[in-house]
Design brief:
- This protein has one domain: Rossmann fold (3-Layer(aba) Sandwich).
- It contains 7 helices and 7 strands, in the order E-H-E-H-E-H-E-H-E-H-E-H-H-E.
- It is globular and about 50 Å long.
- The chain starts with 9 loop residues before the first strand and ends with a strand.
Length: about 220
């Protein structure tokens, strides 16, 4: 992956390794095949996740998840990746201005046409997802109007069962057929071995999102 900073077609800003793959990897593959450069900012190293017996300590898990993420991005073909080290699980306890500064800096340096982040409810209510949303939205709001990229959120066509999450749900207004990438997308997902249970849950609940990726574009 390159260290240069060309203008990006799409920039994802998400909290965890694996947050890039389930809902956007097919779209990334589409854009890369069209000749565009895409990028990813990962805010934590994912050290608070499940180990599934593959390692023992948070430090070992962080190292393993970095390897998994690198393999995943190689499969997808992502050209630009920035790895941050904010504490996993405690992202909500970090000063918001520090997270905003990271998101704002990435937008200003890479000048993406589109930024993709989690929606206000974090998709599933995960505190790190919600915090990452707040950081990206605050950074986006702080830019001059002519500097702002288009802003997309992950969006599922299925409303959350939880009432609080449902109140903040945004129905998708964009959809992309990524079925032609299904083999590579599944290969990229499988690179995240420590997330095998999350993978099974995702496919069980949202099988249609393997072949169709849906987003909400902020007006």
């Amino acid at each position: 992956m390159t260290e240069t900073n060309p203008r990006l077609k799409l920039l994802l800003i998400v909290p965890h390794p694996d947050d890039e793959v389930y809902g956007a990897s097919g779209t990334l593959m589409d854009l890369i095949e069209e000749g565009h450069t895409v990028g990813l900012v990962t805010l934590t190293r994912g050290e608070a996740g499940r180990t599934l017996g593959l390692c023992e300590t948070p430090a070992e898990l962080a190292g393993l998840r970095e390897v998994e993420l690198r393999a995943c991005l190689d499969v997808i073909g992502v050209q630009v990746h920035e790895q941050c080290s904010f504490p996993d699980k405690y992202l909500k306890d970090q000063p918001l201005d520090e997270l905003v500064a990271v998101a704002r800096s990435a937008m200003q340096r890479h000048r993406p046409e589109t930024v993709l982040a989690f929606p206000p409810n974090g998709s599933n209510g995960h505190p790190d997802h919600v915090t990452a949303h707040r950081a990206v939205k605050t950074a986006w709001d702080s830019l001059l109007e002519d500097e702002r990229p288009v802003l997309w959120y992950y969006a599922s066509k299925t409303p959350p069962e939880n009432e609080v999450l449902r109140d903040l749900w945004l129905a998708p207004n964009l959809k992309r057929d990524v079925s032609r990438h299904i083999t590579r997308k599944l290969q990229a997902i499988a690179c995240h071995r420590t997330q095998a249970l999350s993978t099974v849950d995702f496919i069980r609940k949202f099988p249609e999102r393997i072949v169709e990726e849906t987003f909400y574009q902020v007006d």
